[in-house]
Design goal:
Jelly Rolls; Immunoglobulin-like; seven-stranded mixed beta sheet; about 15% helix; about 450 residues; Rossmann fold
């Protein structure tokens, strides 16, 4: 945890926006990914705080959240996350990461009660005495969520005010929001549970933080690795290419590759900047982290090597971690970093995969005599595309469609099919019948003779 409290907007913005040691601020890695798991913003004046950051600083917060980092805040910290404290318009000084509207309670210097909303996610962490009520929380001009104007449907009400005789009574006092798998989760409250050291109010603050942290965005892949090709990760933040950006302190980068049938002698090689510690992880079918990877090279040093003699075919994930970090001097009076400050702008490394294709070429030669994949048309496509293939004999046929991160999107068993040309129309929907977003999708035709794969480009 790191703590920043200052009345100097110049110092604040050198931390949040940029400085000589960090081109895009301490909140973000060189590729723009969140460097922390969550942000917490205390009370005060939301407008003054937003104005002190300027548009560049506010955009850093948005990038953090939309990149997968979480957000929590009390009072002003709840106001500033919204579109506006009024019923119309957009307030420039705010973050807009919760695309809803707040309203001022107009009540200051009091202690309020809060009813726990039935089914609230905060109950997964504490029962708050079992009476669905938390009492005596300090309130000083905080807000509530407007539920009738521009209300985001993904919003989850957690608490409601108990303060009879005032407009705020029964209004949403604490709410959560996560608009997409790739973003973080926001959990904010209009009152002040922070700073309490025991009891249900402490439990509430802990639950807010825990529920936010549980909503981190899903990892993102940098791209696909190809047999024998070396990928160089060397771009600075200012170059604007996150798929080839340097890696930051304690950061993971993720890649994937598709290993064909018959491949053997798989080798994954990592060469990092000398003098720093890098780790290498490999996993079949899902993201590779320390503790979840199928294979790991965690020896000290800047290089890594993993080798498999007869690896499983399919989608593999590679995780690269920079295991070197810096030290924070962090007190209420001071805040700065020491150590290898060059880590803030990232370190260069290369990553590559290679495998023996001798058996693959033999298998493909046999496969070409019995099964031909012609591709999909149209490609790119807007709503539906026809995947066309030919069988030179009877065969069971199945079709699978994957996203580029290796997750299964659609699968169908076409059953026993006769010799000849055939086609399968994919209507850009998943197994639940829902339309999938634009992007690159991998499809695989599986037959008794083997399987072949292609790429479909969906543009809505």
């Amino acid at each position: 945890m790191e703590f920043l409290a200052t009345s100097s907007s110049t110092f604040q913005n050198s931390i949040i926006i940029e400085n000589d040691d960090d081109y895009n601020g301490y909140l973000l890695y060189p590729d723009g990914a969140p460097r922390f798991r969550t942000i917490y913003t205390n009370g005060g004046s939301a407008t003054s705080h937003g104005n002190s950051l300027g548009e560049d600083g506010r955009q850093r917060i948005r990038d953090f959240f939309h990149g997968g980092g979480c957000y929590t805040g009390s009072c002003a910290g709840a106001f500033i996350a919204s579109l506006h404290y009024e019923a119309t318009g957009i307030w420039d000084a705010y973050y807009h990461i919760w695309p809803g509207r707040t309203a001022s309670t107009g009540v200051t210097g009091v202690y309020t009660g809060h009813y726990v909303e039935p089914g609230a996610a905060l109950l997964d962490y504490y029962d708050f005495g079992g009476d669905m009520f938390i009492d005596n929380i300090y309130h000083n001009g905080g807000c509530y969520a407007r539920e009738t104007i521009d209300y985001p449907p993904e919003t989850e009400i957690q608490l409601r005010y108990d303060y009879s005789g005032y407009t705020m009574n029964d209004k949403a006092s604490c709410w959560a929001y996560k608009g997409a798998d790739t973003t973080g989760r926001l959990v904010v409250i209009g009152s002040h549970p922070e700073g309490i050291t025991s009891g249900e109010r402490l439990d509430l603050m802990c639950a807010i933080l825990q529920y936010a942290l549980a909503g981190q965005g899903t990892p993102r892949v940098k791209g696909e690795l190809f047999n024998g090709e070396i990928r160089i990760m060397s771009m600075e933040t200012i170059d604007g290419d996150p798929s080839h950006a340097k890696i930051g302190d304690l950061q993971y980068h993720h890649f994937y590759f598709e290993l064909p049938e018959g491949a053997r002698d798989l080798a994954v090689r990592l060469e990092g900047t000398p003098g720093y510690d890098f780790k290498l992880f490999l996993r079949h079918g899902d993201f590779a982290f320390r503790g979840t990877a199928d294979f790991s090279d965690t020896t000290e040093g800047s290089s890594g090597l993993l080798g498999l003699l007869y690896p499983e075919t399919g989608i593999w994930y590679v995780g690269v971690k920079c295991d070197t970090t810096i030290q924070a001097v962090n007190t209420t009076d001071d805040y700065y970093y020491t150590g290898a400050l060059e880590l803030l702008n990232g370190l260069t490394y290369t990553i590559s995969v290679s495998w023996d294709t001798t058996l693959v070429e033999v298998a493909e030669s046999k496969l070409a005599n019995s099964f031909e994949l012609f591709g999909n048309y149209p490609n790119p496509f807007n709503d539906a595309t026809s995947i066309e293939f030919e069988l030179l004999g009877e065969s069971e046929v199945g079709v699978s469609v994957f996203s580029t991160d290796g997750r299964l999107v659609r699968s169908i068993d076409l059953g026993q099919m006769t010799s000849g040309k055939h086609s399968f129309v994919w209507n850009s929907r998943n197994n639940l019948g829902k339309k999938v977003p634009s992007g690159i999708y991998l499809y695989r035709i599986e037959t008794d003779f083997g399987s072949k794969s292609g790429r479909a480009f969906l543009v809505r």
